[in-house]
Amino acid sequence: MLKEWQATSKEWPMDYWLLGLVGTLMVIGLTMVASSSVAISEHRYGAPDHYFLRQLFSMGLGATAVYIVFQIPLSFWEKHRLKIFLFAIFLLIAVLIFGREINGSKRWLPLVFINFQPSEFMKLAIVVFMAGYLDRHAVAVQESFEAVIRLALPFGLMAILLLLEPDYGSTFVIAIMITGMLLIAGAPWRYFVLTVFPIVIILVVLVVTSEYRMARVSSFLDPWQDPFGAGYQLTQALIASGSGEIFGTGLGGSIQKLLYLPDAHTDFLFSIYGEEFGFIGVVFLILLYLAILHRLFRIGRKAIEVNHFFGGMVAYGIGIWIILQAGINMGVNLGAFPTKGLTLPFMSYGGSSILLLCMALAVVFRVDYESRFYPREKPVKDSRSETNSNDDNGE
Fold it and tell me: Which single residue of 37, 99, 132, 352 could bond 81 by disulfide (Cβ 3.0 to 4.6 Å)?
C-alpha cells in the first residue's frame, strides 16, 4: 500500500503536503483576523467583519495568483530576472514619490483594490535575481569574493531606497535572504559577516542618530519603564501572550483585542493568537511553520539533484524569507526584537503580503512540477562557471 502511494505521489503535479500546510495556516490566519479585528472594525467602520471580508478577498486574489503564476515556466523568471528586479526598484522609487504615509512611513502605493507594499514585491524579485546570479556564478561565488562584491551596487541601491521609506525590517530580512542563498550555494561563511555586518552598522548608526528611534529601542529593552507611553504596545502584547497560559482563553476569548492592543489584526496578531490558544497553540503554529520550511527546502534539494539549480535556489530563498519573517514577527510580539513592521506570513491582515507570498508559493510549486516531470541531465561542463560569462550583475 505504501509503495503504491509513493509511486502515485510521483505523478502529483505539485507538493500537496506543502499546499495542505499553507492552506491550514491561511485558515488559521483568516480565523484570527476575524477574531482579533472585531472591536477595531466595529469602532472604525460600524461593522465587525470589515477586515475579515477584506482579508478573505485578498486570499481569494492570492489563490487566483497561484493558479496564474503556476502556469508560468521557470525559464520566464530566469530570463527576465533583471527586468523584474529593475521593476521592483522602480516601485520603491514610486512609493517615495506617490506613496501613502502611515505612522511616518511611506511604504504603500494606493491601488484600486489594495494598498500595495513594494517591499514585499522586492523580496520575491531578490530571490529570483539571486537564484539567476548564482546559477551562472556559483563556482565563482565559492572561490572569489569579487563575485559577491558585484552585488553591492544593485543591492546597495535597493537598501538605500528601503531605508528612505523607512523599512528597516524588510532591509534586514532581504540582507539575510541574500546571505542565506549565498551560503547554500557554497559561499564561505565569512561572507555572512562581510554582507550582513555593513547593514547592521548602518541600522545602528540610524538608531543612534535619531532620538525617535532611540526611544523605540529603549522602550523595547524595558517597556515597563513607560507602560502607558513608548512601551504601551509591547506591554499590551506581553499581557496578551501571558494571559493565554497553557491552553488559552479560547477562540474569541481575548481581552486585549478589545482596543487595548494596537495593530492586533496586523503586526501583533500572534499575541492575540497566543492569548486565545495558549502555549499549546503557539507550539503547534511554530511546528507548522517548520513543516512548511522542511517542504520548501526539500523541493529545493530535489530540484538541484535533477539539475534545476535556478529553481532549487528559488525554493531555498523563499523558504528563508517565510521562516525568517515568521521568526522575527513572533520575536517582536514576545519582546525579543524591536518592532519591525513585518507581518506574520499567511496570517496577518495585509493584502500585498498575502498576494506576494501566494505568488512566491506558486513559483515554488512550479519548481516542484518541473523537477518531477522535466529533470535535466547534468551538463558536461559546469555552465555556472565564472569563466563562461563576464556579464554585469547577473544578466
Answer: 132
Selection from 173, 168, 179 nearest residue 141 by Cα = 179
Pairing of strands 100-102, 115-116: unpaired
Tell me the domain boundaries of the chain: 12-377
Instruction: Quick: pLDDT tens for 75-84.
Output: 999 999 999 9
278 close to 254: Cβ distance less than 8 angstroms: no
The secondary structure of residue 222, as a DSSP letter, is: -
- What are the b/e assignments for 360-383, b being 16+ CB within 10 Å? bbbbbbbbbbbbbeeeeeeeeeee
Q: Is 60 exposed, middle or buried (0-12, 13-18, 19+ CB in 10 A)?
A: exposed
CA distance 78 to 129: 8
| Those residues with Cβ within 8 angstroms of residue 124's Cβ, 6 or more apart along the chain or in another chain | 318, 356, 359, 360, 363
What confidence score (pLDDT) does residue 108 get?
83
Residues 146-197: pLDDT tens digits? 777 788 888 889 988 998 888 888 988 998 899 899 989 888 877 666 666 7
Residue 129's alpha-carbon distances to 67, 210, 313, 336, in angstroms, are 22, 33, 10, 31
375 pLDDT higher than 60: yes
- Judge contact between 344 and 355, C-beta under 8 A: no
Give the number of other Cβ atoms within 10 Å of residue 305's Cβ.
11
Percentage, residues of the chain above pLDDT 70: 85
pTM for this model (two decimals): 0.88
Residue 69: band (very low, low, confident or very high) from pLDDT cuts 50, 70, 90: very high
Looking at every residue in the chain, the average pLDDT score rounds to 86
Residue 318: closest CA among 392, 368, 384, 377: 368
Position 43: which residue type? Answer: H
Q: Nearest 10 degrees: CA dihedral of 95, 133, 323, 25?
A: 80
Say how many C-beta atoms besides its own lie within 10 A of residue 48's C-beta. Answer: 15
Residue 236: per-residue pLDDT? 92
